[in-house]
Amino acid sequence: MAGLRERFSLRGLLFLMAALWLACVLVAAATVGFRTAQVSAETDRVVAVYDPAAEDVATLTLAISDMQRGLSSFVLTGSEDSLRPYIDGERRSALALSSLDRLVGADPEISPLLRNAEAARRRWIGRVAQPAIRSVRADRSGEAERRITSVPATTTYDRLVVTTDRVDNTINGIRSAGFAELQDLSRRLSNVVVFSMMVLLGALAAAGYLLFRWVLKPLNELRRQIRTVAQRGEHHKPITPTGPTELAAVGRDAEEMRRQLVLEIDEARTARESLEGDRAGAVVAAIRRELSTPTDPTIPGVAVHGEVSSAEGVLAGDWWDCVAMPSGEAALIITDIAGHGPEAGVAAMRVKHMIAQTLVSGGGPEVAIAAAAPFFSDELNRFATLAIICVDPTTGAIRWANAGHHPALLLGPDGAQQELGPTGPLLSWLGGPWRVQTTRMTADDVLLAFSDGLVESHDAARAELGAVGLVRLYRTAGQDGAAPAELVRRTLAQARARAVDWERDDVTLVALSLTEGADRPQIPTPRPTPAPVT
Predict the structure, then answer these.
(1) On the CB side of 356, how many CA atoms lie within 13 Å of its CA?
(2) Helix (H, G, I), strand (E, B) or coil at 318
(3) CATH number of the domain at 281-519, please?
(4) Which of 40, 49, 372, 439 gets the most CB atoms within 10 Å of its CB?
(5) What is the pLDDT of residues 105-123, one digit of tens each?
(6) pTM across the whole model
(7) What Cα–Cα distance (Å) separates residue 156 from each residue in 88, 92, 115, 123, 160?
(8) Which residues have CB under 8 Å from 129's CB, separation 6+?
(9) Is the CATH number of domain 2-203 1.10.3720.10?
């Protein structure tokens, strides 16, 4: 849920909720409309067709009865007035059959029954009624009486009644079934309306829940974190961006502002401490700027960024550099000189210039380390660790020499990692030698170099961060694909938040990766191969 929330923008979330609500409304409206159309169609079928048809059948039955009654009275009395029910019944029965044919004549179940009823009516009229009427009018009343009371006449009339009753029973059966279907559809329509209202209310409740869970809750969490870091002594705790992209962007901006304020606070504190013990503040600041500025900050094919946090004063014994070599390689240098403060800073600056000059002139990493070694050969208490890693942006080839420094880590996107470990002793009065080892990085790999002040920091339980913990923090910081500079800052912010002895030692972290400017090699990383110094 959290991952889905963070992949959506706030605008996207609102659009999603609106789309869900609209979809529910449309589905509910379509369902209600469909059921309403069914009810309307069934109502039209029953009310407009079978109700009038049932009335026509009743009229037909009564008309046939009137015809029989009028004919019998005319045969017995011979009076033309008594024949009027027959004449009127004949007319009404014809109209009823015509109306039934128009209403339900296309019904395959009723149509043959109507034809049979019409045929039986014509047969009774032609074979019984009309001959009897002619006999009476010819003064042959006895003949007429015998005709209408004969077995064939009675059978013919009974057949007419039976076929009419069949039409009546069928139409009334269909009409009753239609009313039952209409009641069932009406009940279903009511259920659909109730269910649709429940769905719409559920969609409204879901929209409110999503608004609270995905917007208001992350916003309140961001406010809580900002209030926390605003308290005295809590400014080192990082702000973790959460929520939709817009809120996460606000969180990242707040975290960037917090880190900048922490940096300024640290600089002000260390500057005050330095100036209280050393009046040459301008010189110290100049040395610090020199150490914190890479020799070649921009090298085609690589992206590199590093941060140094000093433990005392404005000068740190740690420093890092990036140098463009004549071979096209980018040389990453990281050094930790024993101690911190002005003396360590001056020594660091001298070593930095010596190493940079050696690399710029074409010397390899082992040559540069050997050139820096004399600075530490005349004092027993002065020593340093140093690692120089040369990366070819075109092929991804790496060669390195490590003078007792913490192994740099080559991290792959699949979780694999490789240590670029020591190839000789640290820089001290004991001297070398130092070897060169080689490996290769791909376009998706990241090279991390760091000092012991970072991985030897302790949390409240006195547990060291260690290289494993550093990799975990770095991968956590890079889950959203941030740029190398942002990843370094986030990782240091997380490490500082867990540490209770952050200012015990200088802290350095540098990240290097290949960029689009390189050929982006994709070959697998081989095992490192040592190469002795000649």
Answers:
(1) 19
(2) strand
(3) 3.60.40.10
(4) 372
(5) 888 988 999 999 999 999 9
(6) 0.52
(7) 20, 20, 15, 7, 6
(8) 67, 71, 86
(9) no
